[in-house]
Each structure stands twice: as structure tokens, then as C-alpha cells.
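Retry 2 of 3 after timeout on previous attempt. Resubmitting C-alpha cells to design endpoint.
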């Protein structure tokens, strides 16, 4: 059964002992961020609700900070191990992506709780919201869980996008929004410019049913696909949406907070923002980004602000996104890689490393898998390298992957290097970044790609074949296990 909104999910978490209301106010954004980091270090911990000194609005964080809680949000039975939950979540999302006939279009309603309070004109003041600078090296206050909603300006009946793009507050009425050419919002900007538009409408919704957060970070097959229709399938019922007050967009009716406005597309108005402690674990350099001019703030009467921390490999802003980011690529690899069995971009590598498992039966299949992955949309835009292994390697055990690399790879024959290409600009390993001469925004980083064929080699590849891995006699091993306690071992 779907959770109608963030509040219903918080109620569920409190019932199962997964929500803690802090007894003291937190002093500032640095304390909030440090607390989130410590929770991640301690295995995730519960969701927390608290107040920040100087603000009356309650804040919630770490809501989706464990994969178990995300399974609960989807109505799934969580497993006891992180890797198992990863597979459960990824496969569930992959199945939903592959069955578009089951998607449920959102329902437009006349009113919603997100518009119980409407602030416009001089009432708009972003500085009054509990959105703070979270780290000393951040360039300013950041919205860290923004569902950024846009529509295709040339075909407004289709092509709606809900993406999660960082937004730094510049002043009481403007923010930046990270817009890259490789993202759907970048396509909307390019199409608006081609039609001579100077702005496009934007809405930022915050504090939502966790499934809506999930779909905002899912790579869709087409930019024409509607994340809210996918959310409907995952929820088992339509997402209720309401028309904005000052722009021509629809937003989730049960959001806690909505910012409405227009994105300024004039390249000369682009503004520097950052640095920012990003999800890949580094403070990224400042970027030139377009300015979002807020025309209205709407919220519930007793609204809750939802945020997350970033940078830790298992933080509530990073951990939960990984299965959903990989679901569409998993489906794509099933179609394009010969002998495909599984795929994983390890959480610790933030998606910049990928491991593909194949059942290799003919020569060259390992390198075919390398090229198929690096030629995919996500592989080209995000990953720095891919390792291809056999079915005897557990791809969720990086020690086994390293063993395959160390013992099955001749670097002179099994490593493929792709020359420098344009990629997602937040790639921390990229050798350089540049602003687009068309938009003025920081849109691309530039980096090469590497593929490692760590499959077992066969004679047909004109190679000395890989040896047979050492394992004990299976009958003797079973005998030892039965006699274990008789040896005097615990």
C-alpha cells in the first residue's frame, strides 16, 4: 500500500522504532551535517527529527538512510544484508521500468496540502527557511533533497521531468540549479533556447513520499518518460498533483514545501555557485549555473523540512540512490551484452566503477561486454572504468573482483583505453572541465575510459588458458562440516 506522503512514512518508521525525535536543538548546519555523517558511520541509524536554533520549522533527516527503509517504502520485505537489499531494490525498479503498460498517470486535483500557505511577491524570502550551509567549504546554503520539476517547452503535454539537482541559495529570491546537457533538464533548456525562450518554468518540491524521491534519481529510458507515472506504478495508485500558483506546472499535492519560479536562460546572467560537498565524496569546484528566480513559496501550515547529508558513501543522500540509478542500465545490459548475468556499480566507488558478470562461452565476449557497457548512456556519462568477470566471481565481493583482476588480466592484452570524452561535470577524476560556449554553464568534464577484461582466458583467444581455481574436495569438505564440533572447534 502506498504512503500518501512523507508524514505517513514517518509514522510507519516511528511505529517500528526507526524514527528518533532529538531532545535538543542543533546549533547550525555544521552540527547537522556532522550528526548525519556519524549516523552513516554507525551503519545508518534511525531517521531523526529535530529543530535548528533560530527556526520554528521541524527538520527531518536520514529518512532514507538505509536500504531496509527504502524496501519498506516500496512495500517490500527487507533483507538482513545491504547487498541483498541492493539487489531487491534494483530488480524491483528494473521490473517497473520494463513494464510501462503498468505505469499510472498522475491525477490532477483542485487543491492540496502543499498550498495551505501561499507566499508571493515581497513575502518570498528563502532566508527564512531552515536551509543552511552544511559544511565550512560550501559556497552557501544548499537544498539537498530537491525534486526539480520541468516540462518540455515545445511539447508540454509530454516530456515532464522530475530530477534531483543541487540548488544553492544566492539570496532571498534566487537560487542556482545544476543543469547539465546530459540531463533531462538540460534537454528542456536546449529546446527552449531553440525556440527563442528566455526562461522556462521550474518548481522545486521538498518533503515527499519516499517513492517520488526514488524516481527522481532513476535513469529513465527516454526523456519523454514521466517519473510520476512510474511512481504511480510503484505506489499502486496515482500521484495526486496540483497546479502551481504562479507558473504552468503541476507539483505533488502532498509535498511539504514547493518553490515556484522561472529559470533564467540568458547566458550572461549565469552565476557562480559552489563549492559543495558532493555525493562522490569531494568538495567540487565552483560552477557557472543558471539562476532560478522564485515567484512563490507554498507549504503546509505545519510544514516539515526534509534534508539529507552528502559525501559519506553510505549517507542518507547517497546510499539509497544507487540501486535506482542502476536499474535502467541493468535492463539495457540484459539486452546488449552477450551472456549477461549481473551488473553492479559498487556503492563505495560512487558509480564511477562498474562490474559486469557474464557466462563466457566464446572468445572475445569479455571485451564485447566492456564496449557494450562503455557505449551505454550511463556508462559513457558516468563510469570511469568497467571490469568484466565470470560467473564464479561474486560481483558484490570486491575482494573477489580484485582477485580476478590480479590473476586473469594481462595488462598488455586485456585493458582497453578509450580516449578522452565529455562526461558529467561532477566526475572528480576528470582531467578538466569547461563552460559551454552556448549556455555559459559548466556542463562537461573530460576524461578517458578504461575497460578491464578479467574473464578466464581460453585457448581459442590465442592465449595460455586461465588455470583451474583451487577448491577442496567437495565430499571431504562436507565431511569436515559435519564433524566440526567433534574437532573441538566452536
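Retry 2 succeeded. Sequence:
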Amino acid at each position: 500500500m502506498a504512503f500518501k506522503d512523507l508524514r505517513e512514512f514517518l509514522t510507519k518508521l516511528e511505529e517500528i522504532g526507526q524514527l528518533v525525535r532529538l531532545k535538543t536543538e542543533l546549533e547550525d548546519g555544521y552540527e547537522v551535517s556532522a550528526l548525519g555523517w556519524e549516523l552513516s558511520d554507525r551503519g545508518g541509524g534511525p531517521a531523526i527529527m529535530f529543530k535548528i536554533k533560530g527556526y520554528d520549522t521541524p527538520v527531518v533527516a536520514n529518512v532514507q538512510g538505509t536500504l531496509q527503509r527504502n524496501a519498506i517504502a516500496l512495500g517490500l520485505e527487507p533483507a538482513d544484508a545491504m547487498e541483498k537489499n541492493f539487489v531487491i531494490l534494483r530488480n524491483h525498479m528494473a521490473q517497473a521500468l520494463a513494464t510501462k503498460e503498468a505505469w499510472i498517470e498522475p491525477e490532477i486535483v483542485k487543491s492540496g496540502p502543499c498550498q495551505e500557505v501561499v507566499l508571493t511577491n515581497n513575502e518570498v524570502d528563502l532566508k527564512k527557511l531552515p536551509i543552511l550551509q552544511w559544511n565550512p567549504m560550501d559556497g552557501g546554503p544548499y537544498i539537498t533533497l530537491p525534486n526539480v520539476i520541468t516540462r518540455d517547452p515545445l511539447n508540454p503535454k509530454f516530456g515532464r521531468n522530475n530530477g534531483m539537482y543541487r540548488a544553492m541559495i544566492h539570496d532571498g529570491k534566487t537560487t542556482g540549479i545544476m543543469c547539465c546537457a546530459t540531463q533531462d533538464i538540460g534537454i528542456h533548456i536546449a529546446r527552449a533556447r531553440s525556440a527563442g525562450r528566455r526562461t522556462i518554468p521550474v518548481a522545486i518540491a521538498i518533503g515527499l513520499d519516499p517513492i517520488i524521491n526514488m524516481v527522481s534519481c532513476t535513469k529513465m529510458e527516454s526523456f519523454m518518460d514521466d517519473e510520476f507515472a512510474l511512481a504511480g506504478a510503484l505506489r499502486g495508485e496515482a500521484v495526486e498533483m496540483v497546479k502551481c500558483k504562479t507558473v504552468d506546472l503541476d507539483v505533488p499535492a502532498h509535498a511539504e514545501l514547493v518553490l515556484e519560479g522561472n529559470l533564467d536562460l540568458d547566458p550572461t546572467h549565469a552565476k557562480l555557485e559552489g563549492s559543495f560537498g558532493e555525493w562522490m565524496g569531494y568538495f567540487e569546484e565552483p560552477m557557472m549555473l543558471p539562476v532560478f528566480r522564485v515567484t512563490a513559496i507554498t507549504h503546509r501550515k505545519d510544514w516539515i523540512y526534509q534534508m539529507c547529508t552528502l559525501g559519506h558513501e553510505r549517507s542518507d543522500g547517497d546510499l539509497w540512490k544507487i540501486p535506482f540509478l542502476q536499474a535502467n542500465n541493468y535492463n539495457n545490459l540484459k539486452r546488449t551484452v552477450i551472456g549477461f548475468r549481473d551488473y553492479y556499480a559498487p556503492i563505495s566507488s560512487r558509480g564511477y566503477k562498474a562490474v559486469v558478470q557474464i557466462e563466457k562461452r566464446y572468445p572475445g565476449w569479455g571485451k564485447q561486454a566492456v564496449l557494450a557497457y562503455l557505449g551505454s548512456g550511463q556508462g559513457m556519462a558516468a563510469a570511469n572504468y568497467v571490469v568484466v568477470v565470470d560467473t564464479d566471481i561474486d560481483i558484490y565481493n570486491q575482494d573477489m573482483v580484485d582477485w580476478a583482476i590480479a590473476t586473469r588480466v594481462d595488462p598488455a592484452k586485456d585493458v582497453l583505453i578509450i580516449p578522452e570524452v565529455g562526461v558529467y561535470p561532477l566526475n572528480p577524476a576528470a582531467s578538466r572541465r569547461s563552460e559551454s560556449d552556448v549556455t555559459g554553464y559548466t556542463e562537461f568534464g573530460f576524461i578517458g575510459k578504461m575497460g578491464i577484461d578479467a574473464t578466464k582466458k581460453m585457448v581459442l583467444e590465442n592465449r595460455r588458458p586461465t588455470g583451474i581455481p583451487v577448491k577442496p574436495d567437495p565430499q571431504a569438505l562436507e565431511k569436515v562440516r559435519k564433524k566440526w564440533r567433534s574437532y573441538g572447534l566452536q
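Attempt log closed. The chain has 13 helices and 26 strands.
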